[in-house]
Design brief:
- The protein is an all-alpha fold and 142 residues long.
- The protein has 8 helices and no strands.
- The longest helix is centred in the N-terminal third of the chain and has 23 residues.
- The radius of gyration is 17 Å and the shape is elongated.
Length: 142
């Protein structure tokens, strides 16, 4: 059952917290979901389906996550860094505007004001970074 709690506490609860933060914050008024954000949401849903059905369809995934493995540096806790990889990727794919917010100016011009949610660069970085956890998931599943 460790695999379920790892994903719940390391990936999905922080993502829910980010959603609630940006949803209730007046600074993010005017943000609308677009296709790129939806791709991140569907990837998160696919990962959740894999985790929820892993006991039935992917027993080696459950075994690997419950027993753990060494990370690239030879330290134990590879399964924890794997979950943090998913958190970073899904955060960049679903909420890139939260990362861009640190670059917002206090007194933006009209162009900057309307461009503040255009965080395509952060989204593409998340897309490139997603190759590693997707590959690791493929290796663990098959």
């Amino acid at each position: 059952m460790k695999y379920f709690y790892l994903f719940l506490f390391i990936v999905y609860l922080p993502l829910t917290g980010m959603y609630l933060f940006q949803r209730g914050n007046k600074k993010y008024d005017g943000f609308t979901w677009n296709t790129k954000n939806r791709i991140g949401v569907w990837l998160a849903i696919l990962l959740a389906l894999i985790v929820l059905s892993a006991k039935i369809f992917f027993p080696y995934f459950v075994y690997s996550m419950n027993n753990g493995w060494d990370d690239a540096f030879g330290d134990s806790g590879g399964e924890i860094s794997y979950c943090f990889q998913w958190l970073a990727v899904l955060s960049l794919l679903i909420f890139p505007h939260l990362f861009k917010k640190s670059n917002w100016s206090n007194h933006p011009t009209a162009t900057k004001h309307y461009d503040r949610f255009n965080a395509s660069g952060y989204w593409y970085v998340g897309l490139v970074f997603s190759l590693l956890p997707i590959y690791n998931t493929y290796v663990i599943l098959f």
